[in-house]
Amino acid sequence: MLAKPRKTPAPPQTTIEVAGVTITHPDRVISQTGAITKGQLAEYYGLAAPLVLAHISRHPISLLRCPAGIDKQCFFQRNPGIGLGPRVHPFTFHNKGKTYEYLYIEDNAGLLSVIQMGATEIHPWGASIDKIDSPDRMIFDLDPAPDVSFDAVKRGAEDLRLRLKQRGLESVPKCTGGKGIHVVVPLAERDEWGAVKAFAGKMAAEMVEAAPSLYVATMSKAKRVGKIFIDYLRNDYTATAIADYSVRAHEGAPVAVPLEWMELKSVKAADQFTIADVTERLRAKRHVAWPKAQRLPRQ
User: Fold this and answer.
1) pLDDT-based confidence at residue 4 (cuts at 50, 70, 90)
2) What is the C-alpha to C-alpha distance for residues 209 and 138, in angstroms, rounded to an integer?
């Protein structure tokens, strides 16, 4: 009896196409935890593109690129550079006598172009290139010291939410995919950076004054032991924050996810959402209902 011929294993895919962009080496493993491939990362961003782009399109961005995978060496890039493709655009910015060149994208092809070139994380400014002096969001980054529980961070986010509501401002919490929570206030691009930073600083100072054993608003690490750092300094020119639905270059490739306030109560960690989790949320259309853009209250 003749032996059955052995099946030859299928050769690895050399390319796939996502949003009209050719993704090379889609079988390359970029995260050993979860065995996540470059192709899976690109397909995730292709699915999430409308929600990612909703708040980063035409905003200057910085990219964390990890060409060999998140377990290898990564580096930040904010300049257009060579090889990112024609859908990645330059933006020249002048501030305090200096000239800076950043990059921005505006569509699915631009997003997938940076993923093809090894980008994992996307960090946008809080303003678009069209109104660079007036941010469209105010961000508070609640960053806990290593000895602070995530439950304490959630209570801090709720505290901040109530203080904002007392001033007529609605907000959205976002698990950062790291340790903390961002509380984001959509703005109507009618208040300039100075006013937004000053308002955010007053809110942070108010929380520190009310509970100095819980909060700190200074970057000094010596003063942050056992406390939550309320980082309001992201509200300024050139400052960035992790994009909604961006994958993080951390173990297991967690995702930064905006949530409803009620949903935050059951979240166990800021990095609990995987690409698979978020893919399921997106397909089930579990999207956050963002408040309308707002103006800062008059002082």
Assistant:
1) low
2) 21
